Amino acid sequence: MEEYFKNIGPIKYEGPNTKNLFAYRHYDANKIVLGKPMKEHLKFAIAWWHTFCFEGTDAFGGPSATRSWNTSDPMQTAKNKVDAAFEMMQKMGVGYFCFHDVDIAPPGKNLQEFFQNIDVITDLIKEKMEQTGIKLLWNTVNLFSHQRYTHGAASSNYADVFAVSAATIKKGLEICKKLNGQNYVFWGGREGYEWLPNTDMKFEQANIARILKMAVDYAKEIGLDAQMLIEPKPKEPTTHQYDYDAATTMAFLMKHNLDKYFKLNLEANHATLAGHTFDHELAVAACFGALGSIDANNGETILGWDTDEFPTNALDNTLAMYQVLAAGGLGKGGINFDAKIRRTSFAIEDLILAHIAGMDSYARGLIGAAKIIEEKFLEKIVEKRYQSYSTGIGKAIVEDKENLKTLSDYAMKLKDVEIESNHVEIYKSILNDYVQ
Ligand code: XLS
Ligand code: CA
Ligand code: CA
Fold first, then answer.
1. Which residue in 33, 39, 203, 279 could disulfide with 29, CB within 3.0 to 4.6 Å?
2. pTM over 0.70
3. Residues forming the annotated binding site for Mg(2+)?
4. Do residues 152 and 209 share a domain?
5. Which helix (H) or strand (E) holds 192?
6. Is residue 19 part of a domain?
7. 324-369, pLDDT tens digit by residue?
8. Residues forming the annotated binding site?
């Protein structure tokens, strides 16, 4: 079997002072943080599409990277990618992976051939999983790249496209069951509109809900107990995507009585595109008890596209991990690097280095967030801000003992209403001390 990442690894923790680029400086898998090992807080996953399929193309040029797993035979290439993926995950000590159906197997001439190809490759993946103990964090199906999805998949104006989408999702759920996936993701790639005036938005959203309901029913039928996840994104490729952000997606799920079956897979770059911070999206999901999993990356805010860069901003990651810890963790979810190397980082070792960078940055985030929690830095500030609700009239309000009349009587008797400063600048400054 060919070795793809030659003379690299295993990647070990060497601490922040190491000069070895091929070592973890902060991610120390077995180090206990808040009572459990880092590797359980940070269930890192490698994204098949960005790592084994992306070759550095952009809107202005073809591949910049040459990968030795590519051959002239698409099935052989798919098999080589399985070897490369497991070699990389083992060398890095990464315990999970994620994929779209189209990432792992060639399309063939028709759906039948595509599904047969998937069967062959997933047999191979299953074997590797059994040998290594590496798990499937989630899989999904790509209902956006093929020409037939030009007008959407479940939201398409063509019923045949809806039917093909249903068949493809059925297969996706079967793969998830076969590989014991922890989660199953729906990202509505083209579920949105190009032009509102020619779109029946209510109808399209009802059809999306229909297919999701069918998926829930089928998962039940085949005994699949993976957590179902929806991944919000506001725009790109469509002008407007229906699952705009966490709040919009929850409203959609609740309207269609699907909220009990789904949680959210939240991506940092999608938060940026929606005009939110990533920790905002995580906090919104947590409010609904729907914090499912993370697609870890960063958007280049100057460019304003979905650039899917590796997440290296320690402050952002600290705030993100703070939300995760405050919500009690990600449950079955994990931290998938939905991130790709820059076009200029085309060397094979960049795939490893970029993942080290992301993992170390998230480890910094975890350590910093744990310190914030241990020292109750934010907890004390928040407690103080809301203390007027712990006694007197505030307590009565939150215990639902008051109404507009009783509050009016109370307010009329007030001589003055006293409020205090937020002191936000100094707290933001002190927060920097927690960034590791
Ligand atoms: C694209 C999305 C996609 C989903 C999975 O922007 O991030 O990659 O994570 O289909
Ligand atoms: Ca994503
Ligand atoms: Ca993205």
1. 39
2. yes
3. 231, 267, 270, 295, 306, 308, 338
4. yes
5. strand 192-193
6. no
7. 999 999 999 999 999 999 999 999 999 999 999 999 999 999 999 9
8. 231, 267, 270, 295, 306, 308, 338
